[in-house]
Amino acid sequence: MDALIIITIIAFWFCFVLCMKHLWSFLQGKRSVLDHVANVTHVDPFEKRQKKKNRRASVFQQVTKYADDFSELGQRINFFSENHSVKEWLRKSGNPLQLTVERFQGLKIFLFIAGFIIGVLAVIIGLPFSQYMLVFAPILGYFIPIILVRKEAKKRQNLIRKDLPDFLDTVSTSVQAGVSLDHALREVIRYFDGPIREEFSRFNQEIDLGVPREKAYRELLNRNDNPEFQSLIKGLIQGLNLGIPIAKTFRIQADDMRQIREEQVKEQAAKASPKVTLVTTFLIAPVSILMIAGLMIMNMLMGDNSIFSNF
């Protein structure tokens, strides 16, 4: 009977691993087919992802519509989340879930209450550490929206920093070839993805609607606090006012950003060395010494020349 149980467990895990392998192969094949269809039919995958994000945002709004009832209370209880700070976080994160400041403030109170209810249920059921859940679950629910939005804002700014040098080089080459700046931006952003495309697409839309160019530049500054991006937009505003060639501005900015990125990599490498030394000194070295000492003690006690062999 025991042998049958063991064989059944082994067969189950074998079938499970086999199913996972075939599922992974199916997903990879599906992805390659979709990419091929997109290339043949000239479908922009960025637009498909945008539609998917919009659907996700609409579903999220339906789920969190009850958070609007707590918006006034959330604006009063604004620890670590004043209205102007929340507005800035949402703007710099791109607001993928299309939250308003009022709904955000209500959402943190809603999750606070939900965390408290979960803690009470844990106490009633008698789950382990339920008394700690009663305290920490509401606090966690309150801070989850704040942490996630700030993390998304930081991630978005880092993506802009990563793609900006290549973007500037491509636009500079197009402008030097005689293409106007607006046309170059419209064509170049088609080959980029992520926040940098979103920002300049919105910039082009504002220009099409008749917004003055300098005001559109100022809006780009307000939506992003990335130092390299800020330097670029300020350089474009200065070039617009002084008549400096745009292509030269883009080329200089791209070279400066690559140099800054190189210095940042060197700085991160220099900061990593002490951390590696600490890990080696306080973790790896003691464990190695304990392993060697343990082997020596085991050899002394149970080896051929152990101390008990003479008795």
From TrEMBL:
Source species taxonomy: Bacteria, Bacillati, Bacillota, Bacilli, Bacillales
Positions of the Type II secretion system protein GspF domain: 167-292
Transmembrane segments: 6-24, 109-126, 132-149, 276-302
Subcellular location: Cell membrane
Full protein name: Type II secretion system F family protein
The keyword Transmembrane appears for this protein: yes
Keywords: Cell membrane, Membrane, Transmembrane, Transmembrane helix
Pfam families reported for this sequence: T2SSF (PF00482)
Membrane topology: Multi-pass membrane protein
